[in-house]
Amino acid sequence: MFRRNKAFILVLMATIAFTGFMLTKWSNLDNVDAREDSHYTRIKTFTESLSLVKNNYVEEVDENELVYGAIKGMLTSLDPHSSFMPPETFKEMQIDTRGEFGGLGIQIGIKDRLLTIIAPIDDTPAFEAGIKAGDKIIKIEGDSTKDISLHDAVSKLRGKPGTPVTITILRKDVEKPMDITIIRAIIKLKSVKTRVIDETIGYVKLTQFQEKSAEDMRKALEKLEAKGITALVLDLRNNPGGLLKGAVDITSQFLPPGKLVVYIKGRNGEQTEFNTSNGNKFYSYPMIILVNEGSASASEIVAGAMQDWGDAVVLGNQTFGKGSVQTVIPLSDGSALRLTTARYYTPKGRSIQTTGITPDIVVKLDTEKGAATHQIIREKDLDKHLINETVSDEEVDEQEKNEDTDIIELPSNLQDENDSQLQHAVDLLKTWRVFKKL
């Protein structure tokens, strides 16, 4: 995530009440005046409405709540990833990026105006309670979630660790809504998990891109190298992403210095590039990256960069397809905007917005070995998602024809012998080793 300069923040703070204000330079004075007249007309409309509600509503109202509500409404009219964060929510978000927070352990989104589970996070209360991707949360503690914002939903779902929260869900192929009570807990995400497979193949599972993920990855690779590994499997399945810096820093551990990892482009067309770090050690093992429909954002940046440079084989299912950049902009009262400010592109100029990363080798999990199907949720299924301007409608339609509407769930306790994707990756690396000898 990025922070805009102070001038941009001040302009944005001054115009927070409006949906239509454009940060554009004008060379014609008449156009400037006309634009400013229109701008101040909208300001007048807003302040008139605020005053009328404050003075005439049937009950006393909190002016702060009215303003926050207006800002939330403004951001809700944009894409599914732009949102307003009151001070307490902003603090929670900062805790999230450090890898520890209180809650249930779920990723949520809005689909068809309903609060929808994108995926439960492994080894969390929600996962243990049997929550599945595609479940619709229709009530929280008996209150309807119709038209609820994501951050309002998060506020209701989070609470003091050890306290219960009851959610009512609709699930595909289940006739009646189900009430499920989950005990809140401190969610501690260990972002990097490692082991050695078949004596010489290193396995690294990255669960999320946090502030310390790159350093954790560096330590994990050092330990694996000390054990004499000759190949690597990087598992990004069900990794929802996180910090862009983390994605660049982790990719830097697998590509030479100065290689383009990703570039971003905002509304004005200005391009900003992010290259691998200089001077850091990088590992050039034969490498396979595992992805699925739960691999999003920063995960897709890593997979896309390695795929574009030909330094890894990507294996699994089509990824989530989130190709937009959110900038967190703090405001003067401790609140913040999470605003979509750019799209990002792989080194070869691919935008993965709505389309995702297509694996080099498509491999599905085997339902006969303990996996179960559930409804697939991707970026293109979320309300008001951004389009992918680099592909045609025909290409998107063709991809959708080749995608399953149901996907196979990846249980956290899936044994290696039942994980057909992992087994396929291991077999490929063994074959790689054999052919290298030849």
What do you see in this structure?
By secondary structure, this protein is α+β, with helices and mostly antiparallel strands. The chain has three domains: 6-61, no CATH class; 100-187, PDZ domain (Pdz3 Domain), CATH 2.30.42; 190-437, 2-enoyl-CoA Hydratase, Chain A, domain 1 (Alpha-Beta Complex). It has eleven helices and 21 strands. It has helices spanning 6-14, 29-56, 63-76, 87-96, 125-128, 150-157, 213-226, 244-251, 298-308, 393-402, 420-437, and strands at residues 83-85, 100-103, 106-111, 114-120, 136-140, 143-144, 164-170, 178-183, 185-188, 192-197, 201-206, 231-235, 260-266, 271-275, 287-291, 313-316, 324-330, 336-345, 361-362, 373-375, 406-408.
Tell me the layout of helices and strands:
Layout: H1 6-14, H2 29-56, H3 63-76, E1 83-85, H4 87-96, E2 100-103, E3 106-111, E4 114-120, H5 125-128, E5 136-140, E6 143-144, H6 150-157, E7 164-170, E8 178-183, E9 185-188, E10 192-197, E11 201-206, H7 213-226, E12 231-235, H8 244-251, E13 260-266, E14 271-275, E15 287-291, H9 298-308, E16 313-316, E17 324-330, E18 336-345, E19 361-362, E20 373-375, H10 393-402, E21 406-408, H11 420-437
Parallel strand pairs: 11-12, 12-15, 15-16, 16-19
Antiparallel strand pairs: 1-18, 2-9, 3-4, 4-5, 5-6, 5-7, 7-8, 10-11, 13-14, 13-18, 17-18, 20-21
